[in-house]
Every structure is written in structure tokens, then in C-alpha cells.
User: Fold these one by one.
Assistant:
Number 1:
Amino acid sequence: MRILESVKRIPGGLMIVPLLLGVLVNTFCPSWLNIGSFSTFLWKTGAMPILAVFLFCNGAQINVKQAGQPLLKGVLLTGVKFVLGAGLGVCISKVFGPAGILGIAPLAIVAAVTNSNGGLYAALAGEFGDSTDVGAISILSINDGPFFTMVAFGMTGLAEIPLMLLVGAIMPIVIGCVLGNLDEDLRKWLAPAATITIPFFAFPLGSALHLNQLVSAGAPGIVLGVLCTVITGFGGYFTLKLIRAKHPQVGAAIGTTAGNAVATPAVLAAADPRLTDVAQVATVQIAAAIIVTAVLCPMLVSWLDKREKSKAPVGGIMAA
């Protein structure tokens, strides 16, 4: 059976499929999750330690040696994702409260919009851009995980995030980054774990949810995905247009939500228990947004690529 191949064909499959399996088990046979010992640790209560390992290994993949245009593009696109996602989420929270608008929780907005799918960005940059566009992934990788969401919620008072807890959230990423840049072999050795660990924290995150929650949050999740692609996709596109990049259409490749963003609400709820209820809703909304953005974003980049090529003469756009 080609289980892995089939799972990978689904957008965000390594995250979404185990998450949904966890939901189904918790809905129809929750007693299986309470057997005890290592079974319960792995399938029900072990998400946070495994997620910490994921963040460490992911941090090791950040290459600080990238310079020049890849650095500039990476910083700008990362900034656009954070400013648009945090700004939108905070504004909606201030006006409409924790419940949000159209059923979309502000926590889901910040977590989904500030976090981009690095693998999909790299694939699109390789197809529609050049090496400087692909190189920007080394900086964009910083937005993987819960750090930016914690910063946004902590700075604006939407959650009570103790300073040391914020430091603790980023330390695995920082230490992983340091070690990965000190030793290239270590970075390569840790690289597979950044993918392998995903299903193992996805399943217990799903096992904290019920199928009724997933169904009720589906429509807002679809809207969230559309908003993420449109707002940050065009935000990235126009940002690269401003610096007169050779392939500004690649900027739209940040209009995605990464699979690991689905873990962010649980991390925020662990930091501030007041967010526990809304975190469950946000988790399933983000899961829907992951799939929607994985479908829409490549379509947007392709459309912008055709638009750029049709209106610009050869050599008419300055290389960046």
C-alpha cells in the first residue's frame, strides 16, 4: 500500500490526515485514547513535547548566511505576512471580541495568516521565479510555528503571555538555528525530523477535538483560507513590485497557511488558559484554511505570472 504517497497528495496531508484521524477516534471511540502509559502519551497528551522537537529541527533549517536579494525579499515577505495577519486579527478582536466576525476567531486569523507554507512557496518560487526568490525561504522559515502569533497577542494584550514563556517558545528555534548554522552536517541530519514529527503532534491535537466542532467550523475556515490567499498573496505581490523585483508574482506565493499552524492555538491556550475554548474552534478553522490556501495560492501565482508576462516587454522589469 502506498499510504505515504497518498497522504502527500492531499494539501497539508501530513498534518491534516493525522489530525482528522485523531478527531474521528476521539469522536467514536475516545476510550482508546485513555489506555494509559505510552499509548496515551503518544496519541492524546504528547503534542507539546513533540511540537518542541519539531520547532528545534525546523530552526536548524534556517540559513543565516543568505545575503543580498534573498535576504531582502525574505525579510519583506515575512514582514508583510506578520503585519497583515496580526493587524487584521487584532483589529477584528478589538471591534468584535474573541468570537470574531463571520464565525472566524481572531486567534485563527493571526495564526493562519502570519504563517506560510514554506514548501509550497519554494516550489512556486522555483517554477515562476529565480534563485533569489527561492533563497528567501531561509528567512520565511522564521514564521513557521507559534512565535509570531504569541508576539502579536502578547504585545496587544489579547492574551497574557509572560515574557519568559515567550522566550521559552522561541528558544528551541533559536538553539536549533545556531546549531544548524554552526554545523551543516547537523542541519542535514535534523532535516528529515522536521517532516517526520508532524503526524506525531498532529494526531494528539486532533484527539482533543470532536467531529461536531470540525463540521461547524468548516465554512468559516474556508472563508479564512480565501482571505489569507487574497490579502497576503496580493500583499506579497505588490511588495515585490515596489522593489521592482524581476518576478513579483512570486510574492503571492506567501498567500498560504502552513500545516503546522494548526498547532498554534494549542500553544497559545497553554500560555493563557482563557483561550482554551476559542483555541479548539480556531484549530479546525485553520485546518480548513490550510487546504483552501494550498489550492488557491498556486492558481493566484499562475494568474499573476501570465498577467506580468502579457503586459511587460522582455527585459522591461528590473532584475532584483
Number 2:
Amino acid sequence: MGDEFDVAQALRGGIPDRARAWAFVRDFAAAWAEPLADGASTRAEELERAEEMLGLTLPTALREAYSLLGTRHDLTGNQDPLLRPSELFVHDEFGGVLVFRSENQGCAFWGVRLRDLGQEDPPVFVQSRDGWVRYLERVSLACVELVLSETLLGSGGRLYNACELPASLIRELPSRFAPVEFPEYPMCGEGRVTRVLVFRAGEALAARRTE
């Protein structure tokens, strides 16, 4: 699984736009799970019902994400899931936030500010101890992170070890792991920074270093 797919190589040069984000998601799904098929998309009627219920229009990037990944819960719903269209809601704090992802116990949320809904690929914010903070600059970037982290956390513990690293191992990170050209982002509910790394030998999907 994923033996011939190098995450660091695939993300070399970053993700400058939505097209690159969705291309990465397709390639990643094909290598690490099952290829995305037409049946994975959320039906347009579901998105339209959600918009009607909420009284707003979803950003283009969020509609594209649902059209690409809407029913692929193996890629989006193992720990902190992408909400189904019928579960979308507006959080009243921070001037109003359209929430599209929830921490598994409802302790934190990811969303787009109502004031930004007119942008095609608006920034995403997440709740933390300090209130709502900037998570990633674009919805499409947040969806790439979603797929990476949900795949990692859905592996039954085979691909990750959620623990603090001792100082000796932290010193070994530069030699054993390669950084991925992906922006740093805050850890959900905490003030620490997350960086995405991969084993240089391609032995596993990713590791997170937090500070």
C-alpha cells in the first residue's frame, strides 16, 4: 500500500491552487486506499438542500471537495470527520463560521467565516484554547490535510504513534524524516504547531512534529 507513492515528492513545489490539491488527493487515494470514482461524490441535490437550509452559498472549493470525496469516509471520517452536507451548521462565534469538520467528540470545529464565503477558496479557521485561529490559507489545503491525517488515524495504529518524542529521537528527525512542502498549521485545540514529515525511506505515510 503506497509503496510507489512518495508524499514528499508529490507535494514538491507546494499546492498553489485547487487543481493541484485535487490532483494530489486523487493520486494519494489511488495509492493508499482505492481510486476515487464517480460514486464517491456527494450529489448536487444534497449540497443544494444544505445551502437552502443554511440560507447561504458554499464556497466553490468546498463544493468541489464534497463532489470529489463526499462518500469516501475511509479518507475523511476516521477521527475528526468531514461533516455530511446535512450536518453543516453555522457557529455563532467569531462573527459566524460555517463548520464543515468536527473533532470526534465535538470539542473543536473547522470552518470558514461567513464573511469569506464569497471567495472561491477561502481560509479555514479552527477552534483552539485561544478561540478561533487561522488553520490554513485555503479550503483546498485543509482538505489535503484532512485526507492525510484521516488516513493516518484510520490505520488501526499501524501508521502512527500518538506520543511525545524523547529529546534523543527529536534530534534524529532531520536524518530519518524528510519535510513535506506543506504549510505549518496549529494543532486542533492547542497552541502548538504541526509540521508534516515523511520517512525518507518511504516506509510510512507521515509523522507529525509539534512544538
